[in-house]
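This part of the workshop introduces the protein records we will be handling. An example says more than a description, so a record of this kind follows:
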Amino acid sequence: MTSASDAFFESVALPDQQPWHTYHGSVFNLLHRQPRDFIRLANVQILGDLSLITDGDGQLVEAGIDEVFYWSPRPFPFAILSNEAAAATLIEERLHHLRLLSMLYRKYFGYQHIAHPSCQGIYLCHPFGFYAFGHLHDTLQRLYPIRDQLHHPDIRFVVSAHEMITDFQEHLSILAGRPIKEEDLIVARSGEIHVFPDLLVPFSPAMPTTYTPATYRWLVPKYIRACLDFGVNEGLPAATEKLYLSRHHIQPGKRSVSNEEEVCHVLADQGFRVLTGREPLREVVRHFFQARLVLGPHGSLFAHTIYCRPEARIIEFCPDNRLDYSFRDKYKMAQNYAHIPMPADENHNLHIPLETLRNILQQAR
């Protein structure tokens, strides 16, 4: 029999997919790769700091650098793409930079070589060398093309440092459909070169910060089923929660709300729950799925809005000197999304006038 959660997702009409949301149809496909699901590499090495893959001779494996190419040494300046000659030069310079970087790190920094002779590795590293939550699902949805292989107990996930992510193994367990333990992970850390005879490198079908309909329908229902545990005869809980997404604790004095205490006082009177990102994964998914109203300053917690239902209303306050539309444009069920620029200081701290906040809350009733 069909559970309430399965019936819910079967009934939801997702928005039309924008062609540029697919990786190969987006400007992020700077190297003009053809569509592909994964590649399998033999006798390769992963440089822990850089997430770069090299062959046995230390030469860069360009087939595995799509994400690294965009992020390193800093996000690719897409504004230059209107000038084809300049863009071509910059692309070649960046390739040269990555080749040189991999060679210099191997030659001069005394890396510790760690061999993994008896396992197949699945490459899930991020170019940062660690996971920032706002981009976690950029990495995790790379598992979609190899989803039928994740049940195999002998595979090991090659990952970046994940200390910043609450319940990282729980994310992998939900998507793999089996418990993922610490021994199932190989963490590629600074100062290490990991050597693999057999490495599977899957590719995301979607551009960074979003999904395709296929990856969304695969990934999000898995979280909902795992975290809400609906029975066959149970109905869905009502979408009644009101959430405030705080990032005041993350970088004190940067990208926060200067009058956070006043804002939280007003919201407490309105019955809002404050989330900080420190809550367990299953609890967070439940809150967002049951949310009627979500608001807060721009930050990675808005990545959780993928779990919101179509009727949810989302309000994101964004510093006017650091406008970012990635969470607004992220593929999701909830389309009632207000992106509101707010005046901010040089550290991107914004101030939310209380009268403005009260008016917004009044309109959202």
